[in-house]
Amino acid sequence: MRIASTLQQMGITTATVYSDVDRNALHVECADEAYPLGGNKAAETYLRGEKIIDLARQHSIDAIHPGYGFLSENAEFAKACADAGITFIGPTPEVILSLGDKVNAKQLMAKAGVPVVPGWSGSAQDGPDRISKEAKKIGYPVLVKAAAGGGGKGMRVAANEKELSVALEACRREAAASFGDSRVFVEKYIAPARHVEFQVFGDAHGNVVHMFERECSIQRRHQKIVEETPSPALTPQLRQKMGDAAVRAAKAVGYTNAGTVEFLVNESGDFYFLEVNTRLQVEHPVTELTLGLDLVALQVRIAAGEPLPFSQDELIPSGHSIECRIYAEDAARGFLPSTGRIREYISPSGPYIRVDSGVAASSEVTVHYDPMLAKLIVWGRSRGEALQRMNWALRRFVVLGVTTNIEFLQAVMAHPEFVAGNTHTHFLEQNRFDSVPAGPIPLEVYMAAAVASEGSSAEYRAGPVDGRTTSVSNDPWYGARAWRGV
Amino acid sequence: MRKVHLKLQGGSESEAVKVERLRTDDARCYQVQCRERSAEVDLRDESFGSGLVRTANAAGRFVAVTTGSPDRKIEVWFAGRTYTFETVDQRTRRAAGGRSSAPVDELTAPMPGTILRIEVAAGDAFVAHQTLIIMESMKMEMTLASPHPGRVLAVNCRVGELVPMGRVLAKLEAKEQIVRSS
Question: Does B138 touch chain A (CB under 8 A)?
Fold first, then answer.
């Protein structure tokens, strides 16, 4: 959807594909053309590259933007596109392949003079004994990672030998299920640390720039939920050093198009290369807002062979941007995903507030895909101003029908340590966030509930009604939607 | 005038609210009384609740949703927070009063997903926090562990099965009960 809007603005006709459950999804509604893949599971729909390419051929499609998930980091798919004469909007298959293998990527970076996390990688055949010996050498705690991993999937921490064998098995299984590749490697677990990544862009003419950092330390289950730029932790000197390293990393592999070089930064300001994500990241909007760029448009131009339209010195970020990911999950129950039908969905709007969303009222949140509902992104002249705006917007984001993390995000934004910018990757585990309403329930809430119950009773008597959804009031100054600014 | 009894989901106290529909031209307006406060509530949406609460010293927009299912759950969004209520039927309320709640020893699916592994069989003893079943949902693995030491009475699922949320996956017996029965 976010991609379709840019393409349409550029005057490009967009087509999308969909699974059975998604036939009424927003991404289908927003595209100019849409073709069914048949089936529901990711493995039989959005991960079926050959099916997608067949459809693209049938409908004379020139280029494919792979989005953020599914096939976006799949070298075979990129190669198959190239073979079919379709432009893959992303890096070359060779680059995806060499960086997609985390073990290989680390070796390449070490050679290019980019600092890497101490660790060990062997072959797929290595038994637990061998791996445990190496883990001991590195020193516990260690992180077991899938060689083909990404997006927080296929990662396990082991604090000792006993945990290691469990972690190895689980990691291999998850890696096989998610990536079809069960190879794993082990590295030193660096904590406390911040997750700071640099957006990079390369063109086909050998130019590479970085677009500054994104601080993504607020994570649960190794998955990001809050991202911001600039990072409150980077000094201008460290920013310069890391930016240079990111550009060096991209140049070392002949990187083209959009990519993200991820680093861990420890308390003393040492930084270590983690991995390169060979796609546009979910959190790219914060970079767009501080640089005033449309990264998808830039991706398309570069895929078409155009050179980068600016040099490094011309990129000057302005202000501060924060993104909160709205997930259908229950923070009070270990961030367990919540499924069901969205009964009501009202997103906030106002100056410098952006909502990238894939759902609406009556959308079904299913077990088949990632439970992210929307991204709420704000911009402010300073971090304080951005934070204020985010607080306001989170308090005006209505999602009913499924449990969401909106109130949890409110609590994170209000936490003194977050306000002070003191974040690290274990921030959520080590701090308490009471998302339970503080104090007594306002009487207005009881009143509203009673009226809703009374108002719907008549319909129950008339017959069963399912999936009740609201219709927008025509009067913008009345009712719950007044602040939408219609 | 009707009286609606509301209980916050998972809560114990119920709150009684008196509701009366008023006839007005442009909106469905209700006169509502909760404890000592009375207010006017305008419903803007014909199918359920989305509107305005006006009390003596404050006003606030709300969005309320009923699920349409027989459990009659009501969700209310108000000032950035979401509250989930159950309406309490007076008859069942009295019937349930005084009944001692028997502990249900069941391992249920916390969310829909696929069963990946079953680590125990009927008759097996387990310790507290032991992994019993591993399931996968939204590509994430989830470990279902024992809440206490005990024994497995029955396993009600099989590997590869897609289970809905709340499905009983295994029946368990707590250790205290084993001690007592032997």
Answer: yes
Prediction pTM value: 0.78
Q: Which of B96, B126, B159 is the last residue of a domain?
A: B96
Tell me the domains of chain A and their CATH numbers: 2-96 (3.40.50.20), 118-188 (3.30.1490.20), 193-430 (3.30.470.20)
CB neighbour class for A298 (10 Å; exposed up to 12, middle 13-18, buried from 19) = buried
Residues B84 and B112 in one domain: no
Give the lowest-confidence range in A39-43, A450-454, A480-484, B71-75.
A480-484
Interface of A with B in 403-432 (CB under 8 A): 404, 406-407, 410
pLDDT at B70 over 80: no
Mean pLDDT of A14-34: 89
ipTM of the complex: 0.77
Residues B89 and B9 grouped into a single domain: yes
Cβ of B113 within 8 Å of Cβ of A367? The answer is: yes
CATH classification of the domain holding B131:
2.40.50.100
- Give me the domain span that covers residue B147: 106-181
Token code pair at residue A229? 């730029």
Residues 6+ apart with CB under 8 A from B22: B29, B30, B31, B40
- CA distance to partner chain A, nearest, from residue B33 (Å): 7
> Is residue B93 scored above 70 in pLDDT?
no
Say whether residue A451 is in contact with chain B using an 8 A CB cutoff.
Answer: yes
Considering the domain architecture, whether residues B7 and B56 belong to the same structural domain is answered as yes
Structure tokens at B156: 């009600």
Band the pLDDT of B25: cuts 50, 70, 90: low
Question: Per residue in A329-382, pLDDT tens?
Answer: 999 888 989 988 898 899 999 999 999 998 888 888 887 777 899 999 999 999
Residue B173 burial by Cβ neighbours in a 10 Å radius (0-12, 13-18, 19+): middle
Distant-in-sequence, close-in-space partners of A477: CB < 8 Å, separation ≥ 6 = none
